[in-house]
Write a structure and sequence with these properties.
mainly beta; Porin; two-stranded antiparallel ribbon; 3 helices; 20 strands
Length: about 450
């Protein structure tokens, strides 16, 4: 009985210490110096040592939102309910566990990562992957499982560190959930003294549907790659940037494929190709992206500019340009494919005021799902154009206050503008501006 109590006491003490060390090591590398904690008794150390490379982190984002109208469509946490223009919600509540296996030289040799998101809407796995490192020269790694797609800056910036409440509309439509199942090889030197350590290159193959589907619905895979220049830091200026590429597509369920064309009067329209050979072929999903970040450092704070531009080709349906989790159908039957040419941008300005605890932010983004048509042509008879072809732009104005190193308050207002068209419901600007008040705590 006494022995059992001692074992239970050890386990409880170990758990508390592991949690304490995980929180304290949030700003450190994965390889934390647990052995330097001199107050751990020798009787407990063997138990603790099993957890010395385990790291637990997480964050929670409760918020209140007020929309401009009842039932407002929104990319700031989902559409509002039909008769509601205000809501409390738990936007994200995530816990992540990382386990690092170090090499003899104390470089990472393998890493397992697992993250869940638990809110009032349910529980979902966000990350689950294994990352293996090459340990001879410490230059390469391989990642397999469910993890973030290596495309763009905004997509890969964690929601725990992103200044604005949400990613832009284009990110959410073209890269829903940001993650996908696949395998990736990376060039990422672990030794900072190496000349090539500033350059990171990722390339991988992914299913394509992300977390919106339970399995890959066709055999077509997405090739995604990104070359990134890590921040080049000096005393006053920091610069980074990257180039991204995605080459993929998804299966046509019918022989009907609509592509951009011109009417005799010059209007942009969709023209149908009904060749029987279209069934089962891949409609192109090709993205190209470039991004740059510049930060100026002062004694009282920082000034930062970020710019990112995407363009390419996106398959969809008549009503949507989102990447589907399953083959698009209507009443159980496959629907025609619509191929659109798109572009979009994210522009962000950040400015500390007074000191680094106060920050002003200004963000502008747009997503034009069909750059081949003009706003006045959408809704016009015979064009086959729908609400999925309308360009939206968003101006976000915000303020963040760092209550303490782990807690932040954000006040943010999205001013959303849509193209004025001939389509019913879009002949004027929608009343879909959103005010967000968010409290965030991370550990």
């Amino acid at each position: 009985m006494f022995l059992a109590k001692r074992i239970v006491s050890k386990v409880l003490l170990s758990t508390i210490l592991v949690a304490f060390l995980s929180i304290k090591g949030n700003s450190q590398r994965y390889l934390s110096d647990i052995d330097s904690i001199f107050f751990i008794k020798d009787t407990v150390r063997p138990v603790i040592k099993r957890f010395e490379n385990l790291r637990i982190t997480g964050y929670i984002q409760p918020q209140f939102q007020k929309a401009q109208s009842d039932g407002a469509p929104s990319y700031t946490g989902g559409n509002f309910s039909q008769y509601s223009s205000s809501r409390f919600m738990l936007r994200r509540a995530r816990v992540k566990i990382d386990y690092i296996m170090p090499s003899k030289e104390k470089y990472p040799q393998a890493m397992f990562s697992f993250q869940i998101d638990a809110t009032e809407r349910g529980v979902i796995v966000r990350d689950m992957f294994l990352k293996l490192f090459e340990t001879k020269r410490n230059l390469f790694s391989m990642t397999a499982g469910l993890f973030a797609r290596p495309f763009g800056y905004e997509v890969n910036l964690s929601s725990a560190f992103r200044e604005t409440p949400e990613r832009g509309r284009m990110s959410q439509i073209l890269m829903p959930s940001e993650r996908d199942i696949g395998i990736m090889v990376s060039h990422e030197p672990q030794e900072s003294k190496q000349k090539r350590s500033r350059f990171k290159f990722d390339i991988g193959f992914f299913n394509g549907q992300g977390l919106s589907g339970t399995t890959d619905f066709d055999s077509h895979k997405d090739l995604i790659s990104r070359m990134f220049i890590r921040p080049n830091t000096s005393d006053k200026v920091e610069f980074s940037g990257g180039l991204s590429l995605l080459r993929g597509g998804w299966k046509n369920g019918t022989k009907y494929v609509y592509e951009s064309g011109k009417a005799p009067n010059g209007d942009g329209i969709f023209v149908v190709d009904s060749s029987i050979s279209n069934i089962g072929k891949s409609s192109p999903r090709h993205y190209y992206g470039a991004d740059a970040q510049v930060k100026l450092k002062q004694g009282w704070g920082e000034t930062e500019w970020r710019a990112e531009y995407w363009f390419g080709t996106q398959p969809g349906t008549s009503a949507s340009t989102s990447n589907p989790g399953t083959l698009p159908t209507s009443n159980g039957n496959p629907v025609p494919t619509y191929v659109r040419h798109f572009d979009g941008v994210f522009l962000l300005f950040l400015q500390n005021i007074v000191n680094n605890r106060h920050q002003l932010m200004l963000k502008y983004d747009w997503y034009d799902p069909n750059i081949k048509v003009k706003d006045a042509q959408i809704g016009k008879s015979g064009t086959n154009l729908t609400a999925a072809d309308i360009k939206f732009s968003t101006l976000g104005i915000g303020y963040a206050y760092l209550i303490n190193p782990q807690t932040k308050l954000i006040l943010y207002y999205d001013i959303v503008k849509n193209e004025i068209t001939q389509l019913t419901g879009y002949t004027t600007d929608l009343k879909d501006n959103i005010l967000t008040c968010r409290l965030q705590f991370r550990f």
